[in-house]
């Protein structure tokens, strides 16, 4: 429980409750974790590369290939960290800065951005960001 408090401190109570609701909806079997099968059912599989898979593995500390709520909050914290202008989305520049720091070149980031900007908004929202991380881990 201490880990959840530490991780969730970046969010107010209302935000944590809303995130918990989203997490619970993805947790189809009610196990308290989002497992690989649940991810596969709910996410479109695409190929991102090792950066997202590495990030997912780093968050999945227990190596279960599933995320508990505390781990889910860590993903949200990473998203918020990269969202430099705090508008709730990652623009191409924000995603480029994040991924070029891990060794990707501009062309690779451009391809990733196009793959995951599903609504064509020119920005990656949190749902698209999660799909990017989770689908690369499942591939």
UniProtKB/TrEMBL annotation:
The keyword Calcium applies. Keywords: Calcium, Repeat. It comes from the Eukaryota. Residues 14-49, 104-139 form the EF-hand domain. InterPro entries: Centrin_CML-like, EF-hand-dom_pair, EF_Hand_1_Ca_BS, EF_hand_dom. The keyword Amino-acid biosynthesis does not apply. Pfam families: EF-hand_1, EF-hand_7. GO terms for molecular function: calcium ion binding. Gene3D superfamilies: EF-hand. This is Predicted protein. It comes from Micromonas pusilla (strain CCMP1545).
């Amino acid at each position: 429980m201490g880990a959840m408090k530490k991780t969730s401190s970046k969010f107010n109570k209302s935000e944590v409750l809303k995130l918990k609701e989203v997490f619970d909806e993805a947790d189809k079997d009610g196990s308290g974790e989002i497992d690989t099968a649940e991810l596969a059912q709910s996410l479109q599989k695409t190929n991102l590369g090792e950066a997202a898979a590495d990030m997912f593995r780093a968050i999945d500390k227990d190596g279960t290939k599933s995320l508990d709520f505390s781990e889910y909050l860590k993903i949200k914290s990473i998203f918020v960290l990269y969202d430099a202008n705090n508008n709730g989305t990652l623009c191409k520049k924000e995603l480029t800065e994040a991924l070029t720091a891990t060794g990707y070149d501009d062309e690779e980031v451009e391809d990733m951005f196009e793959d995951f900007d599903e609504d064509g908004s020119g920005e990656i929202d949190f749902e698209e960001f999660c799909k990017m991380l989770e689908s690369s881990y499942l591939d």
